[in-house]
Automatic annotation (TrEMBL):
Task of the protein: Catalyzes the methylation of 5-hydroxyuridine (ho5U) to form 5-methoxyuridine (mo5U) at position 34 in tRNAs.
InterPro entries named among the record's database cross-references: Cation-dep_OMT, SAM-dependent_MTases_sf, SAM_O-MeTrfase, TrmR_methyltr
Binding site residues for Mg(2+): D129, D155, N156
Enzyme class: transferase
EC number: 2.1.1.-
Similarity remark: Belongs to the class I-like SAM-binding methyltransferase superfamily. Cation-dependent O-methyltransferase family.
This protein's name: tRNA 5-hydroxyuridine methyltransferase
Coiled coil: none
Pfam families assigned: Methyltransf_3 (PF01596)
Keyword terms, alphabetized: Magnesium, Metal-binding, Methyltransferase, S-adenosyl-L-methionine, Transferase, tRNA processing
Gene3D superfamilies hit by this protein: Vaccinia Virus protein VP39 (3.40.50.150)
GO molecular function terms noted in the UniProt entry: methyltransferase activity
Length: 213
């Protein structure tokens, strides 16, 4: 954590007992959740946008879904998670929150999921925070569910600095993932149907606004 991030974190200490429990659980069991600076920036962007219906790819334990609906009065989230253990833990946390009626979690691999009959609505926002090497495939499959003028958000665009390293300096097990992430970034930044920005906060947040035409 940089000095700036530590300074910002000093103003945003978690006070909600359930959220604190989720953060501790994620730390103990190495569950990836958004870091404080990234989450606070993301929630700030959502408060500006004021989406009513949000689709999330990658629920993990339900942390970001709960944070999103708690920050947005009247908003609802549909979220997809493929890992059964994380899915069941997310169900537990969501049920214990006060937002269970505003979060629908679907168990399944988002890339293999048959969307017909499951996603019969359009969304104001799409949040992609799943397998980093598959971001382009997630984007291509689920962007059609985003309304014109809606926004697609992607987290972990920097992968803790790995995107800045020469290919040979990236651990072999991660090279394909990092190559795919770089290729996705270059592709979406030039996509003619979106106005795209990359914010250097947290671990990097990409914002793609879907053009109305």
């Amino acid at each position: 954590m940089t000095d700036y991030e530590s300074y910002l974190a000093s103003f945003t200490e978690t006070v909600d007992p359930l959220i604190k429990e989720m953060e501790n659980y994620a730390q103990k069991y190495y569950i990836p959740i958004m870091d404080p600076s990234g989450m606070n920036t993301f929630l700030g962007l959502l408060r500006i946008q004021q989406p009513k219906q949000i689709l999330e790819i990658g629920s993990a334990i339900g942390y970001s879904a709960i944070r999103m609906v708690s920050a947005l009065h009247g908003a609802s989230v549909v979220t997809i998670e493929r890992d059964q253990e994380r899915y069941e833990k997310a169900l537990d946390f969501i049920a214990r929150s006060e937002f269970g009626n505003r979060i629908r979690i679907i168990e399944g691999d988002a890339l293999e999921l048959e969307t017909q009959g499951i996603l019969d609505e359009s969304f104001d926002a799409l949040f992609i925070d799943a397998a980093k090497g598959q971001y382009k495939r997630f984007f291509e499959k689920y962007s059609e569910f985003v309304r014109p003028g809606g926004i697609i958000y992607c987290d972990n665009m920097f992968m803790h600095g790995a995107v800045l390293l020469p290919d040979e300096d990236v651990p072999k097990r991660n090279r394909t993932m990092i190559r795919n992430l770089k290729e996705f970034t270059a592709w979406v930044m030039k996509h003619p149907a979106y106005e795209t920005s990359l914010l250097p906060v947290g671990d990097g947040i990409l914002i793609a606004v879907k053009k109305s035409n």
